[in-house]
Amino acid sequence: MKILQFLAPNSAKPTIINQKQQSYGAISQTQIVLHRSNRQRLSINCSNSGNTNHKASTSSGESVAKTSEKDVLKALSQIIDPDFGTDIVSCGFVKDLRIDKALGEVSLRLELTTPACPVKDMFEQKANEVVAVIPWVKKVNVKMSAQPAKPIFAGQLPPGLSRISSIVAVSSCKGGVGKSTVAVNLAYTLAGMGARVGIFDADVYGPSLPTMVNPESRILEMNPEKKTIIPTEYLGVKLVSFGFAGQGRAIMRGPMVSGVINQLLTTTEWGELDYLVIDMPPGTGDIQLTLCQVAPLTAAVIVTTPQKLAFIDVAKGVRMFSKLKVPCVAVVENMCHFDADGKRYYPFGKGSGSQVVQQFGIPHLFDLPIRPTLSASGDSGTPEVVSDPLSDVARTFQDLGVCVVQQCAKIRQQVSTAVTYDKYLKAIRVKVPNSDEEFLLHPATVRRNDRSAQSVDEWTGEQKVQFGDVAEDIEPEEIRPMGNYAVSITWPDGFSQIAPYDQLETIERLVDVPPLSPVEVYT
For the purposes of burial, counting CB atoms within 10 Å of the CB of 149, is it exposed (0-12), middle (13-18) or buried (19 or more)? Predict the structure, then answer.
């Protein structure tokens, strides 16, 4: 609590004003509260001076403005973001708030984190409604905009990937289940929702992208100065595939393929993208591991078919993503059924998709029927969601796109706030993604538990850093996410510690401490 003291004219005692700061995302609101006795005394004393009376009038005007702003922000705080579970004011979405109480006019801008936000229309409607019911408001003007979230790991990535907000892998670990069809249609669905999207075809042995899309330029170009790859485009989506390299399909050994994929992915000038969709090659070998290590995957979408054989291979892929701490957010069961003679037929049986969902706890399942048009669109070079955006298949992909947008937003929020430093408690606060448990760690304990070669002898296992080498009052200078599995903690001595979530969960915890930091910070 900050205490400001003002000596009123002809007054021997100071008037006490309690000034409390409240943070509303990007908007800072100051509330000024006067005790009644002090308010009356200030009014009487100020009447003796014209200059002071002018100041009191100005102060009164500011107080009215602050009260009006408080009314608007309080009304807007009723709108809850379904992805973050927090009101839009606390999320920092409210920008450029302007109020003219005399005319009863309010204007503001809601800045979302993605142009593909599936609830942006709802936000706009609700904002108009909740502000309009304020008694003194006569006119409301709400504008919508999007400022995509900056990549969480930007400083640790190759330049080509540093401006991509979310990277989504579409995987099946088995060929022939329609993975490329799902990847391409998902990408163009996201683009249709207003996002900036790219597709990376990671299958060097059998690239599908050149068949499924029909760009005007079918050859990747090289920037001679930067030595970077310029992607080709089709209907506003950036495309990179080995099939556009002018060499057809590759005949090479695994290590060479990993190098080619690394080069294609990291040296491409992707620019600013909201989503990069990676069409993963089948399998769980070196190529897949290289992709997962080079690109910080935000999430994965699993594609399968109803057969038991498909489930066996898909299960391997889900386990691979689990070990690499990449969340699987949806399962797409392709070629589920077809309708004929008024009946629904299941030529490949039932249950593979639901079995994946139940066994691995993946939250969303989407069914795709057998449709000649879906297959034909893949051969014609125009995705189904583009050629027939009102079809049942397009609606399913629309639902999948909404799911991906929402889940990526949740994951980004969880990762960015998973490990933070609480300056008030002087403790590291940990809440591992996909866990409801939150706990506190002593910074010195975390530093002493470093298991890198600088702290522990790799050959003997002997501890190099002794207990007394770490100051008890040490505080981290910076904590940054490292993928979905760890954080990088920078300490005052310049040491950068990689702390996996799994390790943090095993460290001795602090107990008997307040669950939350106080709202009021002493300054």
Answer: middle
Give the per-residue SS3 of 365-429.
EEECCCCHHHHHHHHHCCCHHHHCCCCHHHHHHHHHHHHHHHHHHHHHHHHHCCEEEECCCCEEE
Q: Are 171 and 290 in contact (CB under 8 A)?
A: no
Is residue 140 within 8 Å of 174, Cβ to Cβ? no
Asked if 198 and 273 touch (Cβ cutoff 8 Å), the reply is yes
Pull the structure tokens for residue 478: 């910076």
**CB contact set of 412 (below 8 Å; sequence gap of 6+):** 149, 152, 165, 166, 298
Return the CATH architecture of domain 2-146. Answer: 2-Layer Sandwich (3.30)
Q: Which residues pair with 127 in a beta bridge?
A: none
Neighbours of 272 (CB within 10 A): 12
**Helix, strand, coil percent content, the chain, rounded in steps of 5:** 35, 25, 40
Intrachain domains 2-146 and 419-504 with the same fold? no
Element (H, E) at 343: strand 343-345
CATH 3.40.50.300: does it fit domain 154-415?
yes
Q: Of 308, 416, 391, 388, which is closest to residue 353 (Cα–Cα)?
A: 308
Domain ranges (residues) in the chain: 2-146, 154-415, 419-504
Distance separating alpha carbons of residues 417 and 25, to the nearest angstrom: 15
* CB within 8 Å of 25: residues ≥ 6 apart: 88, 89, 90, 91, 92, 93, 94
Q: State pLDDT tens for residues 209-249.
A: 999 998 988 888 888 888 899 999 999 999 999 888 876 55
To which H or E segment does residue 357 belong? helix 352-360
Q: Is 74 exposed, middle or buried (0-12, 13-18, 19+ CB in 10 A)?
A: middle
pLDDT band of 45, cuts 50, 70, 90: very low
Q: Which of 385, 399, 407 is nearest to 192 (CA)?
A: 385
- CA 19 – CA 473 distance, rounded (Å): 31
CATH code for the domain defined by 419-504: 3.30.2020.30
Q: Of 397, 378, 404, whose CA–CA distance to 188 is shortest? A: 397
Inter-CA distances, 522 with 2, 34, 516, Å = 6, 19, 16
121-133 per-position pLDDT tens digit: 888 899 999 999 8
What is the Rg, in whole angstroms, of the alpha carbon atoms belonging to the chain?
28
Comparing 301 with 1, the larger pLDDT belongs to 301
For tokens 């949740």, name the residue: 410
